[in-house]
Amino acid sequence: MDAYFPIGIVFGIPNDGQVASAFNTDPAEAIEFFKAVFGWTIVFPISGIFAILGAYCFTFKFKLGWSSNKFLIFVLVTSIAISVGAFKPIHEGYKHTVTALKGISELKKAESIQSKWQIKTAHPTKQIYVLVIGESARRDYMHAYGYPISNTPFMESKGTLIEGAVSADDYTIPSIQKMLTLSKAANHSKDNANLEYNVIDAANLAGFETYWFSNQGKINKKDTPITVIANRARHKQWLKESMDRSEKVSDSQLIPLLKKAVKSDDSGNSPKLIVLHLMGSHSAVCERLIEQPLLGAVKNQYFQDPLCYVSSIKQTDGLLEKIDQILTDSGKTYSVVYLSDHGVSHNEIQGKIVMNHASPASKHRSIPLYKFEDGEANLQKIKARKFMFNLTEGILYWLGIDTKQVSNPRDLFSGEDQKDERNELEKLSGRRLDPYIDIRGK
Ligand SMILES: [Zn+2]
């Protein structure tokens, strides 16, 4: 019962995103989660459980009555006190678990979802569109957005960079679910997936050849809203599907799949939409550095995780450069959008700074939003507030698709601030401040 206690200390009271993510996560990520969480705090529930079990055995062995044994009463009262301390997170956890389970049972029906999009016109201007969904990248850790260490040389060379994108959630699954489906009205109870209006179906119906290549985990065809959406693509592949799940797989292994999709003529003259889902800068970030060496060193191990994080950004920047190279070599016209599902926050765990999802702070949802296309030579930086709740609408604009549902989709890369319909900025400003750490000299 009080097993949630250590998680509660580090992560705070659980919310739907945490619970949904815990239910949907891949076993390797779940192990990372528990590794990050369980420090000394595990002592509380374990000692609680052992105290109760010990007292129970003791009572039987010596045939003692509960009421006559002061020691046992003491143990019992202590155990209850510990449990009561953990009661609030448990109660919250229960509530959110019920919501998450409801969502999962909805997913079981997902295979039979009928798309409800009504396409009016499609007028794409490029032959190939690539949507790169990054992982856990926070923009103030990128040199392109002002971080003091050079880790984004490609992003600074050309394209359009938006400063002001706010992710749709703090966690992967709810965030991508909201990003890749048409947002419901602002006052709608938000966490049910609007899967009938997902972006892949819109592209299919508008005549695009669709592809989804993922370096993230997948358990079965309908384990999360993300795999449900991904499965709507005509061509799809998960890198980790056919190998040991704990194996570390570099995002760059998506490159041969991209190359093949770009070259293939299975679409005839139709435009292509290719989605690449990265592992990027996911927590346990030092383990993500497969090709990219560390950008320098830190004297104090306390800052090792931020150093890995800064370096992982460079790894993703290198991947974007490779994508650009393949598309340029193909001789086709193209447009690439890169963004992250959410950022991370600094948490002190076992005497070290850890960059993860725990206790999301004020910058947790400040993400990069970047586009590059064929024939560009300069970088344009634009300051504008863009809410990723509206990403599907922005993707429709990008692909040149007009639907009955969104007749005039808004451009993600315009200078116009979007209205904060869900008061997200106010909610974020109420969180603890969590500025980036300059690791130089640390
Ligand atoms: Zn994520």
Quickly count the domains: 2
Straight-line distance between termini: 41 Å
Percent strand equals 15-25%
User: Largest beta sheet: what is the strand line-up?
Assistant: 5-4-6-2-7-10-3-11
Summing up helix and strand content along with how strands pair, one would put the structural category as alpha/beta
Quickly describe the structure:
By secondary structure, this protein is an alpha/beta fold. It has 13 helices and twelve strands. The two termini are 41 Å apart.
Describe this structure in words.
- This protein has 442 residues and is of the alpha/beta class.
- The longest helix has 27 residues, at 304-330.
- The strands form 3 sheets. An 8-stranded mixed sheet has the order 5-4-6-2-7-10-3-11, sandwiched between helices.
- The two termini are 41 Å apart.
- Residues 1-17 and 36-42 have low confidence and may be disordered.
- The chain contains 13 helices and 12 strands.
- Helix 2 (16-24) crosses helix 6 (87-107) and helix 2 packs across helix 7 (172-179).
- The protein folds into 2 domains: 2-107, no CATH class; 116-429, Alkaline Phosphatase, subunit A, CATH 3.40.720.
- The site of zinc ion has 5 residues, from loops.
- Zinc ion binds next to loops.
Topology of this protein?
Elements (H helix, E strand, L loop, with lengths): L4 H7 L4 H9 L2 H11 L5 H19 L8 H16 L1 H21 L11 E4 L5 E7 L24 E8 L5 H8 L19 H7 L3 E6 L10 H6 L4 E4 L16 H9 L8 E6 L26 H27 L3 E7 L4 E5 L2 E5 L9 E8 L5 E9 L3 H9 L1 E3 L20 H6 L13
Parallel strand pairs: 2-6, 2-7, 3-11, 4-5, 4-6
Antiparallel strand pairs: 1-12, 3-10, 7-10, 8-9
Helix pairs in contact: 2-6, 2-7, 4-5, 10-11
The chain binds zinc ion.
Zinc ion binds next to loops.
